Amino acid sequence: MSFEDRILRAADKNGTRTVLALDLEDANASRLLKRSREVLHSVQGLICGVKINRQLVMALGLNAVRDSIIKLANDFSLPTIMDAKLNDVGHTNRFMARTYFDMGFDAVIASPIAGWENGLDTVFEAAHSREKGVILLTYMSNPGAEAFYSLTTHQPDGHGKPVFEILTDLAVEWKAQGVIVGATQPQVISRVRQLAGPNLPIYSPGVGAQGGDPKTALDAGSTYLIVGRSIYNSSDPAKAAMEFRHPIPS
Asked: Does 249 reside within a domain?
């Protein structure tokens, strides 16, 4: 089963479009692991996937993430996404993608800035051979992202085009399994949806703690919401996750 089918199945089953960003931080590794598992366990029926950033991998190590976090997500039939933001030369990207996929991650996030030839071509090859997914970073959720992603570049035909539109075109051309567009940028979400068509999933981080409004993002064209701090920093993560529960229309 493809990554897109796995996450859509979880979304339909749990009646939600929320991907949990399990990006907790704690200097005490044992406490961090315990809390991460507790949060995941408490919201498992209210999310459709789990995104893990480098905070957790660096603090706990690859083996602990694989054996304690990814395994638990698998037990709940929740696909996992590694927020690696891969952006290096081909052989390095290949090694990193292969490592994350073989750990059990169902998809990786990568940056199109590396280009295709001897860049992200190796990531897509690793993904396709394992029925995994590649989600491309198109527009970040932080305020400073505008300086680059909205920068207008001159094209061979003489017309100007924002960087995020070029990255969206690449995601379509390379047949990515999704794109990342911050929920803090609803106008950009609308434009990406227009360029990408109705079927390419848009994943939107920045909901809650960064000020992104879930309904506005979904109305603009987002498919999935990525929510972290607003859930895992809550005294009641399940209650917080319930507030972001927006089923996919049938």
From this structure: no
